[in-house]
Amino acid sequence: MDILKQLAAIKESEEIKRDNDVVFRVLSSLIRIEKEAMYGVRVSNKTARIDKIFDDGFDRYKESGRASSKD
Amino acid sequence: MLLRRIKLKNFRQYYDVVSIEFACDPEKNVTIIHAENGVGKTALLNAIKWCFYGSFTKNFRNPDKLVNFEAEKEGKTSCSVEIEFNNDGDEFLIIRRFDSLGRLSKAVQAGEVNVYKMVDGTWSGALPDPELVVNGMLPEEMADYFFFQGEGSNAVETGNRGINLARSIRNILGFKVAESVQDIINKKRNSINKRIAALDTSGQAQKVAEDVERLNGKVVELEKDIARLNDLIPSLEFDLEMVVSELSKISHAELSSLSKEEKELEALKSKLASQVRNIQPKKYDLIRRFGWAVFGREFADESLEFIDESTLKGRLPEPYNKTFINDIIAASKCICGSDLHPGSSAYINVARLLEKAANPALQSRLGAIRSQIQEIKTLNELSQGTIKDVLNNASLVEGQLQSVTNKLELVKKKIKDIPVDMIAQLQSKKEKIQGDLNRQNQMLGGYISQHEAAQKNYESRRNELKRLTPNSEVLGELEIYIQYVNELAETLQQHLSKTERLVREHIASKVNSMMRSFSRHSYQIRISEKDFSIVLVNNDGTQVGQGDGLNLLLNLSITAALIEFVRERQSVRDPLLASATAAPLVIDAPFGVLDDSYRNVVVSNLPKHAEQVMFFVSSSQWRDEMDLVIRDRIGSEYCLVLEERAEQGDRKVDIFNIRGKEVIASRYGCERDRVLAKEII
Q: Complex ipTM, two decimals?
């Protein structure tokens, strides 16, 4: 398959994942915080915000049923 | 990224403030800066590079003299470069200052940099980590691709192998951010493990948890070490390749060949000298054998003549010798039959014949002498051929010996002129790099096995921890949390690897396509797995010997491919990686090593791939036909004008003819030495 098409397909699947996948949502939230820090925007309560992202994500993770499927 | 304007203040030959506005319109994205050699093109390119990174291109001379000397005369000690630019929709201002009195940073020449972001129409306070901001937008490793020296640059001399393209691509994709998120996930995993351990009242689990954390830290550190070595090893391999290539240029092409020639000439000289030595006895033998005959020839001829003259002249011929006459006298009878009476006149006449009669003894001795003399003459004739052969041969061999001796002296002189010290230095450098490389490879192997062992140990300690902690509801919850954190880490890692692989393939295909559009040859590219370095290969897979022109084309192709990739990438909304930044393409003396047909292709194609292009050109590089193919894309155009205090004298005035307009580019008898930027409207 043409690489551009592959990239487009990845883009599409990733966008779907981003909206629906709890793991991707957590990761993108963490990346966003790090990007903000890198670009010089002062992130207040960074640790607390990161913990909240993890914990909220964990709740959704359990709800999604992925946890049980791994056991 | 779009550069909007640059302001140079007392930077190098730019006195006071000189500003240039760059073309930012997508349809007219080309800025042309005309300047003759030595006026300020390279300084302008370096002003941009220095402003962003605090460093310079390789060929930038006297980097320690940044402050304009006219300004220095007025007592000023500082200079600065300011660039306003747009990145990803946001406006930024970067200012780098250098003060020759101050020590504003660790690297004095790098000066002090600040980056400001436009917020609600005004510049914010300085952002806290300007270097990180700049590198996040455009990694410094990529600078040589975007702020490009067309002539004599490292990128042109060595191709792209001097730059770790693999790392650059990872940076441009925003791997730095993703990697710091990996650290956050690791920390989270450790904190959960500690919470699990805390459930164990016996205290054993706590110790195991500490082990787990330590091992996890070790795994992460080893992974970083492995990544660092994977970056370092290709660069060491590249250094080694460069040294070997330099050595082969000197030692193999010259020294080896000359040494071989010297050896052959020495052998030939020795053989010829031996032949000359062998000829000497033959010469002596000739003298011994023929010398007397050679020297006696003339003497013999003269002697024979003398003997004949003195001995035989006036003598009666044989058989009227003395015996015959005496017999007649004794018989008193002439051979005619008449009597000879002693005292008669006939008797007296016959007796007088004795005076002239031939003498047999004398004749016999004379015969012997004549025979000897004849022998001299015969030997002399015989010696002619032999002597000639020996002497001709001797002369030939001696001539050859002289010619070989002369050649040998020449070769020895050439060898003497070869920088032996440099060869020794390169040889020792080669051995050092080779040693480093071997050590690093061994270290890498060690790290990989340590990593495997640490990973196994970690898993086993994790299981032990699980066994030690009570099987409570809380533990179950925390185990799921660990599973969740592991899934975050794996997903991120897989995403990075997959994207990197696809991006590499994509860029490779683009570079191939660019090379097809730029080059008249059907070359392919070959990419190293390790560092993503790119070389040109023929259809049969053999590497193309890359001259400056091909290197420049390959690098322009890579640059154009990267820029195009980055532009496409901007529309890929990847939540885990950065939307890559397309940097402006700033090229100083872009076409120096390209022939005319390539120049037109490059100048018309690059602005299609890049968001913004700046060409810094001299009158010898810029042709009317190039102007014609790019005219519609030119959004900004300047001419750098040289002003000098000195009178013109014999010097000619530089005049640029830009689309029918004459621009005087050098002025004399001015107030001070400086360079101005005159906008062409």
A: 0.83
